[in-house]
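Provenance

Sequences were taken from public entries as deposited. Structures were produced by running a predictor on each sequence independently, with no templates supplied. The record for non-specific serine/threonine protein kinase from Papaver somniferum is shown for reference.
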Amino acid sequence: MPLGIVSAWNKRRRSWSLDQNDPWIYKRLEYWQLDDQTPHSTKRHHGSSVFTLKEMEDATCSFSDDNLIGKGGFGRVYRGRLRSGEIVAIKKMELPPNKEAEGEREFRVEVDMLSRLEHPNLVSLRGYCADGKHRFLVYEYMNKGNLQDQLNGISETKMDWSLRLKIALGAARGLAYLHSSSAIGIPVVHRDFKSTNILLTEQFEAKISDFGLAKLMPEGREIYVTTKALGTFGYFDPEYTSTGKLTLQSDVYAFGVVLLELLTGRRALDLSQVPTNQNIVIQVRHILNDRKKLRKVIDPEMSRSSYNIDSISMYANLASRCVRHNSTERPSMADCVKELQLILFTNSKGLRTGLHLFKMQPRTT
Ligand SMILES: Nc1ncnc2c1ncn2[C@@H]1O[C@H](COP(=O)(O)OP(=O)(O)OP(=O)(O)O)[C@@H](O)[C@H]1O
Ligand SMILES: [Mg+2]
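Predicted structure for non-specific serine/threonine protein kinase:
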């Protein structure tokens, strides 16, 4: 158990004063560099390393465009090869000066969290670089990129229903691990769960990334009041947005939105629609428990032979509960894992017995 982080948190609970031990208060860059500045890679906890700027340049051929794999709010992401030969993803922090403090905090949280968390459904941090003003995060390389691109981006692969269920279950397991105290002794809220933060391996195993906004939930407190809602439009828990009360259930709402993306193949926020109909939850919420209408929103890209309607309706029912307005009515992530296991089983059983064909016969009366 990471005693350091727990005791720092307890100290904060006792005083609630803004002191130097508070991991959430911004500190000048120099503060974090005290023991991180070493000329060569040094092993840290859980095998993550500290890299130099030179190593980052060598790994990416000086950040050549050929190695660019993506761009997000934090900066560009490059494919790189470390001196050890390992292929990695290197995220380069590129923020305007007025966002540097925020970026530094996210950088620090990401390193802190990922160095302590270990689970097959969380992307692993291979190391980081904090060389002068330069900041890089180095992750295991995820061959199939992010889920959103696989669903409605450039990808050629048409994901069938069982593959989508496998991804949903993997992501649910990752979140359930974060929410359980078994991770680091205190539950962790991700706060920016979304389909671009679910990365996929060659075998389509899902791993959650981007912990920069993650927050520890203090023991005995189920609610944490924040003044500024942080996260991404389309995934915001409406209760958190209106009250500022952050709970583990805010992640469950975002998970429900991802479940809907997997079912429909639509984006969480579709800006081509009129403003009142842009949000996927608003578009489909009213039909999730209506078996007949439900068929109309199933992603047409999905092979019909890969699903049975029983598993689809169980899944839609779970999604509808995850996106309930009232957070106390949403299931826990542990419940989501159990239900998704049952849904996967129902789907495979239905396909084996040909149940789905029987159920989907066109009505003659
Ligand atoms: N470990 C990784 N392996 C492979 N590709 C990655 C990895 N990390 C990130 N990427 C790719 O780089 C893209 C940009 O990632 P990044 O996390 O910076 O932004 P984002 O999640 O898309 O958006 P936001 O900044 O709003 O969170 C991702 O969408 C993904 O396609
Ligand atoms: Mg991301």
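The chain has 13 helices and 13 strands.
The radius of gyration is 22 Å.
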